[in-house]
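User: Can you predict the 3D structure of Sec translocon accessory complex subunit YajC? Sequence below.
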Amino acid sequence: MLGIAFAMAAPPGGAQTGGAMGAFQAILPLLFMFAIFYFLLIRPQQKKAKEHRALLESLKRGDQVVTAGGMHGKVSGIDGDIVNLEIAPGVVIRITKGYVASLKKD
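Assistant: Sure. Here are the predicted structure tokens for Sec translocon accessory complex subunit YajC:
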């Protein structure tokens, strides 16, 4: 039992046990977790945002779209950041361009 106590005690003379290697081993799991978060969460989100920006830039009159709120309609005009969306014959609503979620493939 006394041998275990001496094995767990600090080395004689106050010498450090790990040095730089111990600090690296302490940071290594954090770096590994950051890499996992980057490749599983951050990178796919950036790719999706880039695709959405490309979709908004390619919008043109006559496109069939779905909004973030679930409205389906045809783009009847674009004025800067505002999209005129015809949701029924003769019914045109104005929405912010960023709320166009996807193009319908008909």
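The CA atoms of residues 86 and 92 lie 4 Å apart. The beta strands are 64-67, 72-79, 82-88, 91-96, 100-103.
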